[in-house]
Design a protein that fits this description.
four-stranded antiparallel β-sheet, Rossmann fold, 14 helices, alpha/beta, about 575 residues
Length: about 575
């Protein structure tokens, strides 16, 4: 009988907590009605209490529901007296629509076996604290909602937390090194940058929410160990554009803005940034992946340059990404690899394989309803410095052959300023083309993740396969995302080969578009490797000109002839 009564109480709570999603939240200055509630208000005003005004359509759950952590055992447990909630949660945050809604945190061991509950927008969940940790999965999923509502985490008469103005929409990670760090303020103050970027809207009227973690947040944390920061290190929390955009990743903010506009301002966008200047790929690898790949925790394999701080293996993941890994997302945007070009641990040649291993791990760690979320990789653009980007760039082009739902955002036509100087120093390592990359990136995300447009129209052609003739003097290259067919402006250029005993890239004897999706190249001597967009300073259309019918350049790649 006691279990039945508890179950009925929960059902009543769910029905009475339903909240509407019909507009922006109204302002309220109401204070919590009990002294033991820890309300996370920061500078935000509290929203009105949830009401019963929702329509059935507005609270419809997805067809496939996540496992509900609320059970009779949890509801019969004694409520916890004290617990904490992860700093991944905060006022003004965005929760991922149509997927799990998880809330997690910690408590002293004395609270083991006791109950924590959560409620949001008519959904409820509960969990029992075990080993000082707890994770609640709410009993359902939610569609997008532009009305800020209250997420409440509580334990009956025990400690409680309230997070206000919580939106439901699409959440993204943007991950990388200094080109992800490159902030909006740099574009605003760069007279050569795209005018649209310099005039980009920054307003709290936009339902874009930003959460930034960068290597500078980790001061005082010991590096070179397996230790992880279980909670979010940065204390900025979720910020609205007027508070956080100028310091936020230009690529991240511009992409969020474009997605928000293209979705008619009906879907809130949350962008979570993880950046580390000078960090090679292994800085973003979890301990388990690093060990699987046999990469040392020592400081190695990163370049040294003025103003660049090299970080050790797993550092960015352990103290940045780890604390968000339970939170479902729409996709990852990845712009990284510059520090792997001269790597001493083979990241330059093994980049694709190691990156694919990382993404498999992340998808499993997120453990979300939409398991294999898309990953969008920014191809390293042309560079006019003595950094051999070509090796990593070419390896990036083979990632989609190793793991599903990875897409390359091509860039060879988006940067060609060989005279660009920063403070009197020649620097094309950090191009000011972030608005242009965001335009292409957002179009690809809209097409793949949101069903707006077609990848065949907005993506650059991507190599699918390369077949070599028996004598290895002919290579047949197949592409996807070609629009109505591959094109070139005049004679085809951009392919390179290694033949015989030579170890330098050379032009093939012939290269020709032979079909809608096919290029055939020939050589006079047997090939050992074939590549496209090989040289670090190649630009489109000067040095390479293969593109789709819509004019988007083909992506870089390198394929070696299989050894017998």
């Amino acid at each position: 009988m006691k279990r039945l009564i508890s179950f009925l109480i929960c059902a009543v709570m769910i029905l009475t907590c339903a909240a509407g999603c019909t507009g922006k939240p109204e302002d309220s200055t109401a204070e919590p009605d009990t002294e033991n509630i820890t309300t996370v208000t920061d500078t935000e005003e509290l929203t009105d209490e949830l009401t019963e005004t929702d329509t059935e359509e507005e609270t419809t759950e997805a067809e496939t529901l996540p496992p509900v952590t609320e059970d009779l055992e949890a509801m019969n447990a004694e409520p916890a007296a004290k617990f904490t909630v992860s700093r991944a949660f905060g006022n003004g945050m965005v929760l991922q629509r149509n997927d799990y809604i998880r809330i997690w945190g910690w408590a002293d061991s004395s609270e083991n076996g006791k109950r924590v509950e959560a409620e949001f927008a008519g959904l409820h969940g509960a969990a029992v604290i075990a080993d000082g940790e707890w994770t609640i999965t709410l009993g359902g999923t939610l569609p997008e909602c532009t009305e800020g509502r209250t997420l409440r985490v509580f334990a009956a008469d025990g400690a409680s937390y309230e997070f206000n103005d919580v939106l439901v929409g699409d959440v993204y990670w943007i991950v990388g090194q200094s080109n992800v760090w490159y902030p909006v303020s740099y574009i605003k103050n760069e007279p050569l940058a795209n005018e649209k970027g310099r005039n980009a809207e920054i307003s709290n009227d936009l339902q874009i929410r930003l959460n930034r973690t960068f290597a500078g947040d980790f001061a005082g944390i010991q590096i070179g160990t397996n230790a992880v920061s279980r909670d979010v290190v940065n204390r900025r929390g979720w910020q609205k554009p007027e508070q956080g955009a100028m310091d936020f990743s230009a690529l991240g903010y511009f992409t969020a803005l474009m997605l928000y506009e293209q979705l008619e301002r009906k879907v809130p966008i949350g962008m979570i940034e993880f950046d580390g200047n000078g960090c090679a790929l292994h800085a973003f690898l979890p301990n388990e992946v690093r060990d699987e790949l046999n990469i040392s925790t020592e400081k190695n394999g990163v370049y040294s340059a003025p103003g660049v701080n090299a970080h050790v293996s797993s550092f960015m993941y352990n103290h940045g990404m780890y604390s968000f890994q339970k939170m479902p997302i729409t996709a990852i945007i990845w712009y990284q690899g510059e520090s792997d070009c001269n790597s001493t641990n083979n990241n330059n040649t093994l980049y694709a394989e190691r990156f694919a291993t990382l993404i498999r791990y992340l998808r499993n760690a997120h453990d979300q309803l939409h398991h294999d979320y898309p990953v969008y990789v920014v191809e390293l653009p042309p560079i006019f410095l003595q950094f051999d980007f070509a090796q990593v760039r070419m390896n990036m082009g083979t990632i989609p052959q190793l793991i599903n739902d990875v897409y390359i955002c091509t860039t060879s036509d988006l940067w060609s300023d060989r005279t660009y100087y920063i403070d009197g120093v020649r620097n094309s390592l950090h191009p000011y083309n972030k608005w242009e990359i965001a335009e292409r990136m957002s179009a690809m995300i809209l097409a793949r993740s949101l069903g707006v447009g077609s990848l065949d129209e907005v993506s650059g052609p991507q190599m699918v396969s390369v077949e070599f003739s028996e004598d290895k003097c002919t290579a047949t290259i197949k592409y996807k995302y070609v629009g109505e067919g591959l094109t070139s402006d005049g004679k085809l250029k951009g392919f390179k080969v290694m033949t015989g005993n030579k170890y330098n890239w050379a032009k093939p004897a012939t290269m020709e578009i032979t079909d809608k999706d096919t290029v055939v190249i020939t050589t006079k001597q047997p090939m050992r490797s074939v590549s496209y967009f090989t040289l670090l300073d190649d630009t489109f259309p000067k040095n390479l000109n293969l593109c789709s019918s819509t004019g988007v350049p083909a992506g870089a790649f390198r394929i070696d002839v299989p050894t017998e």
